[in-house]
Amino acid sequence: MINVKLMGKKGSRACKEIRSGAKILSYKGESKTETNALINYGLPKPNLDAFFRKFPSARKLPIINRHVGHSKYSVCLRADKNKIPVPESKLSLDKKDDISEWIEKRINSIGGKGICLARGRKLISGKYYQKFIDKRKYELRIHTFMWIPKEQWRVQKRLGAVDEIAWNYKNGGHFVSVYNPRSYKTFVQAMDISEEVLKMLGMSFGAVDFLVDRSNNVYFIEINSAPGFTELSKPIYVDAFLKLKSLSHKELLKFAK
Domain-by-domain residue ranges, the chain? Predict the structure, then answer.
């Protein structure tokens, strides 16, 4: 069995659950046990650079999800450029834009914080505008792991109140598991797009979020490199990282850079 170690935000509940459930220790520098690769659970470049300063030996190791922390806005632009369906996104609105059809979102945010109806057209520091899909049917989260066959990826619906802009947990949103997602065209499309997004960003795992409207159009919203855990998602990630540990060293290096 290969030996992988974990890097993540201090105090992260998700990292704690991965350490406990998958028996993957945090990286603490050189040890007597050889480390084959590191798992980066959501550390963006500034935090990763700080980690390397603390543990210089980590620089030489292969890292799964070495490059994360892309802003939500930049990912939307890249997705659009790659012909991935995404709600129209802008840093400022034109005179022809109907303000009532747009929302404001933070360029970097967690848990839906900072999302509100557009209040103007001008550039807002730390925010961008996105066309609001008001005829939402539900949201989707695809838990993606490149070392696991795509047909085994887990799909969850997120539901919420019609009058809420964001369906995050604090606004009353909740996840339900989808069984046999490969039997439904909409879910298959979302899983295929999730794979495209991972390849586009050079990532090997992540939670990819979508909006689905009443006409079953699928819109990519964002990817989470350090998803928080619910009772539904915790076993998904523990199982995925247990499967990662079962790979050969050669197989592991396909997903670590």
Answer: 4-68, 72-86+136-236, 90-131
pTM above 0.85, yes or no: yes
CATH hierarchy code of domain 72-86+136-236: 3.30.470.20
What ranges in the chain are assigned the alpha helix state H? 13-22, 45-54, 72-81, 185-201, 234-245, 249-252
Question: Smallest Cα–Cα separation from 128: which of 116, 111, 137?
Answer: 116
pLDDT tens per residue across all 257 residues of the chain: 799 999 999 899 999 999 999 999 999 987 667 899 999 999 999 999 999 999 999 999 999 999 998 999 999 999 999 999 999 999 999 999 999 999 999 998 776 778 999 999 999 999 999 999 988 999 999 999 999 999 999 999 998 888 788 777 666 678 899 999 999 999 999 999 999 999 999 999 999 999 999 999 999 999 999 998 888 899 999 999 999 999 999 999 999 98
Give dist(CA 223, CA 206) in Å, integer: 6
User: Which 8-state DSSP code applies to residue 91?
Assistant: S
